[in-house]
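Morning. Coffee machine broken again, so started the prediction first thing and wrote up yesterday's gels while waiting. Chain of 147 residues, entered below exactly as on the submission form.
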Amino acid sequence: MTETKVGPNQGRARRTWIVLISTVALLVALAVWNSARMSLSMSTAASDDQQFAQTAPGTNTKIAVEIAEPAPEGTAKGKLLQKKTEEIYARTSSSVTLRWNAQTKIVMGKEADIHPGAVVHVTGTVRSDHTIQAEQLVILTGYVKVQ
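Came back before lunch.
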């Protein structure tokens, strides 16, 4: 019977592969954990009065708003909308103030489309004064109906 001897270079190569595979597995596990943590911190659609009122400052949120009155540049006041179907939203009694700046992405329209009666889907962060600092505004006017 012949013995196969593992040379010092083969043992080193095997250890290198084991370390490399372990590192990749650890990075994948960290990416999955971080993704799960981020998804838990996203409060999706504070869709009714009570949920919106209880949203803590610093929370990321997605809401739909019917604009009542544009205020000074970069702000607007409106009513929180509750999604009934993909095309139908209902007004709630919650008032919402939005704030945006030059870094805010405006999709399916432009800033001039944010006027009284406009329907806007907002992705942003709840501030300490309970206003929403928008990261993205999607103009839904003409695509959805408000009841």
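Confidence is low (pLDDT under 50) at residues 39-46. Going to sketch it on the whiteboard this afternoon.
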